[in-house]
Write a structure and sequence with these properties.
This protein is mostly helical. Among the domains are: 110 residues, no CATH class; 79 residues, no CATH class. The chain has 31 helices and no strands. Helix 2 packs antiparallel against helix 3, helix 20 runs parallel beside helix 22 and helix 22 runs antiparallel to helix 23. The longest helix is centred in the first third of the chain and has 28 residues. The relative contact order is 0.02. The N terminus and C terminus are likely disordered.
């Protein structure tokens, strides 16, 4: 009995079921008394005594556990001497009634036993109770690993789940499939698709879209077409995302005609043409603009009855790419009239095109109009404007915008600081360049190789060659390795100051560090050789430059032709000029090399 009490403490659930069974027995015992009174005379107190005893014993199941005879047997034995004889004209048979009641009680006890056996005991079947939580936990781990790019670990966990009889759902499979495609392992993605089909996990549209995206990244459009056919055979309808993804991939790879055919197919099969036409048509319009085919872009624009904000932005950006600012502004006006407000992308596009055209007043006007339209500046707005101002030489105004940026609680990225430092350095304003560097450090923005190169240029322009070399040492102490720009800056400065030994030492170090000399390196060496009258050395360097098949600008040609003219070797100068015209496109505007 002590063991049973311990078991009851462990499983309250069983006790509830057990006592509910006891209550059922009590109700049936009450029914026994009722039927008994219908057949037994009221003077048989002993019979009532036994029935009461039976009732009490059933209330306590631990009593009479070792009795050979049941309570019902006791009752029937005692009743034999008290019931009337068969001579009475009583048609009712009490034994038959009690046998029926006995059968009902036994059925009830059997049901109670089956109820008890069906209860899952925590210490004997822990796996059954924890399988659902384990499944959820492992499925979540597979999704997380797939998102983090650990598709291999996710696959191992998937195998363990399958071995334990736990089949992941479609969502988990889609995460793993996407992980394989992002890693470029499209073969594993195909394998997983087959495993899904074998294990009864039917792929949905998202599954196929993920696979299509993987093949689009590979430009394998034959396989994309096969998947689209498979979707039709499996009864999976391609979504708008499917077609938009395929059209976008075709446009990016230059297959615009194929994209147009798919768009036509969409419009032929769908009823709501306008709503489905907008997104793929916008993708096509963007592709035509990038290709420079404005006429085709305009034809598709006119075919759309209702444009949205995205479409207007694509159109404005397209005209800006093709330097057609007037049409861009016309569609900006149409955007207003249609009830759409320009967003940050619209304004940044216009600021960018004005900066590229050198129209900084217009760019600054658009920048100031943003706030009036309720659109806040972002880091891209500031970046475009500051870069444009530095290119145009207005470094002071660029610095003012940088400080406005800080007032707007936008921390400039290192590139913006570097552009301003480099702008001051190019104009020889070393003091302001160092001031901006110090301000940069005050805001915990760490300098990078571009920062050091800008400061090295500033020192060189100011004639501080020793400080420039010192900055190269500071780079190494800061854990930043000098790059090709660093070496070219110092090499050119050494050659200009006539320090040939330092220049050769830098050249050797550059090669040792694994940097290949580029066109700027060879141009500086050629210029120096010509300046020292070493024309053969200059010709040798020019030959090495041509063998490297690097893009060559006009500068080395001009330097050599000038030297040939000084030496009155006009034939060599003319042959070099013909070589330039045959193999290289001369610049429309050739700056002075003096």
């Amino acid at each position: 009995m002590q063991t049973l009490l311990v078991t009851m403490e462990k499983s309250l659930l069983f006790i509830r079921f057990y006592y509910s069974g006891i209550q059922t027995i009590e109700s049936m015992t009450d029914r026994v008394r009722q039927v008994y009174n219908e057949f037994v005379w009221s003077k048989f107190d002993l019979v009532q005594h036994y029935c009461h005893l039976s009732n009490r014993r059933r209330d306590d199941p631990w009593l009479s556990a070792s009795n050979d005879r049941t309570i019902d047997d006791d009752c029937r034995l005692e009743m034999k001497s008290w019931l009337p004889n068969n001579n009475d004209n009583d048609n009712e048979n009490p034994s038959a009634v009690f046998n029926l009641l006995d059968s009902m009680l036994k059925d009830s006890l059997e049901k109670l036993k089956s109820m008890r056996e069906s209860i899952v005991w925590p210490d004997t079947c822990p796996k059954l109770l924890t399988s659902k939580s384990e499944y959820n936990q492992q499925a979540a781990q597979i999704r997380m690993l797939s998102l983090e790019g650990n598709a291999g670990l996710a696959q191992n966990l998937w195998r363990k789940m399958v071995q334990n009889g736990l089949i992941p759902d479609i969502l988990t499979h889609n995460y793993l499939l996407n992980g394989f495609c992002k890693a470029g392992n499209i073969e594993k993605a195909e394998w997983l698709l087959e495993e899904m089909l074998e294990r009864g996990c039917a792929p949905n549209c998202v599954t196929y879209n993920t696979l299509i995206k993987g093949y689009c990244l590979r430009n394998d459009f034959d396989r994309v077409n096969d998947i689209l056919s498979t979707m039709g055979n499996k009864g999976v309808t391609p979504s708008r995302v499917t077609f938009n993804m395929v059209i976008n991939a075709l446009c990016k790879t230059g297959f615009i005609d194929d994209a147009r055919r798919i768009l036509k197919k969409i419009l032929d099969e769908k009823c709501e043409k306008e709503s489905l036409n907008l997104i793929p048509s916008t993708i096509l319009i963007d592709s035509f603009f990038k290709k420079g085919d404005i006429n085709q872009a305009m034809a598709h624009i006119e075919a759309i009855s209702q444009l949205d904000v995205v479409s207007y932005n694509v159109i404005i950006n397209g005209f800006c790419l093709n330097r057609n600012i007037s049409l861009a502004l016309r569609y900006l006006s149409a955007m207003y009239k249609s009830g759409f407000r320009p967003d940050i992308f619209t304004f940044n596009t216009l600021i960018s095109v004005f900066c590229k055209e050198g129209k900084m007043a217009e760019a600054c006007y658009i920048f100031s109009a943003m706030l009036k339209m309720g659109v806040s500046h972002d880091h891209i707005s500031y970046k475009i404007l500051i870069q444009g101002l530095c290119i145009q030489g207005n470094i002071a105004m660029a610095l003012n915008f940088l400080r406005n940026m800080l007032e707007d609680s936008i921390l400039p990225e290192p590139l913006i600081w570097n552009v301003i430092i480099d702008g001051f350095g190019r104009y020889g304003d070393l003091q302001n360049a160092l001031l901006v560097r110090d301000e940069m450090l005050a805001y915990d923005v760490l300098p990078n190789s571009f920062t050091y190169n800008a400061l090295i240029r500033a020192h060189i322009e100011s004639g501080n060659i020793d400080e420039a070399y010192s900055l190269k040492s500071s780079m190494l102490l800061a854990g930043i390795h000098p790059d090709l720009v660093t070496y070219n800056l110092l090499l050119g400065a050494s050659l200009n100051y006539g320090d040939i030994n330092s220049a050769l030492w830098l050249f050797d170090e550059m090669v040792r560090e694994g940097y290949e000399p580029d066109t700027i390196t060879y141009t500086q060496l050629i210029k120096n050789s010509c300046g020292r009258g070493q024309i053969e050395e200059a010709e040798t360097l020019f030959g090495r430059l041509r063998k490297l098949k690097l893009p060559i600008d006009h500068v080395p040609f001009i330097v050599l032709m000038k030297k040939y003219c000084i030496l009155k070797e006009f034939d060599k100068a003319y042959r070099l000029y013909e070589l330039w015209l045959r193999n290289y496109k001369p610049s429309s505007s050739i700056p002075s090399t003096s």
